[in-house]
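Aim 2 progress update. The chain analyzed this quarter is reproduced below.
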Amino acid sequence: MPVAAGLHYFLHEGGSHSHAPVVFIHGEGGDHLSWPSELRRLPGHRSYSLDLPGHGKSGGPGLQSVPGYARSVVEFLDAAGLGRAVLVGQGMGGAIALSVAADSPERAAGIVLIASGARLPVASTLLENSANPATLPLALQALLAAICSLQTEARLRESVSRRLSALRPTLLHGDLLACDSFDLTARLGSIRTPALVICGTEDKFTPLIYAETLASSLPGAALQTIDGAGHLVCLEQPRRLAGLLTIFLGTVPYVPGG
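Predicted structure tokens:
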């Protein structure tokens, strides 16, 4: 995997440079493989799927704050020579994309916010249990229950459980802290970046009301719901998301070289 600004990433050279490049930003505890191939290899588009600091193959510690991760994404855009890009984020990654659009609007041609929100509060018991090695199994059990839905296949649930268990406890706790401290509610009305908001109707970690708030507060944002899907909507319904994303990308104004 290539590296830019210290971040490893997966590059899919699948489209014309006349279209805006797409940057995929994974969520809490994830990496570039959090995006299934239907998304990170989206036909007709150049796409970059990142490993955030401390995640996947990217070195160093996690940053424990959404603004810190947002700065790392802007640094990546600089190092990769991307003046503007469509930022696609899931969960914490959506918060990061939203922060870039708020603080560096010239860098975001569009944003796609999947299973995310302007606030991402985390239950106090989950935060406390994830901070203590003795109670970490309880935290993992609670987190798995929150991000899975009745639609989540057993094989997917088991795969996600293994990946969560393999994470460094400090990294997972740091990401949960980053989510819990995030709040961009008061600034939504000033963000003019074209936006698509996507949420599964059975998402317990970032409930539908979060997506509805984003869509009603971001000027011109569109909302798409996925019936029966939970927080793992990207993995549960990748083809549906790929279709929605392709349609949205076709509406995003972009000048090559910008």
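The radius of gyration is 17 Å. The longest helix spans residues 66-79. These observations will guide the mutagenesis experiments scheduled for the next reporting period.
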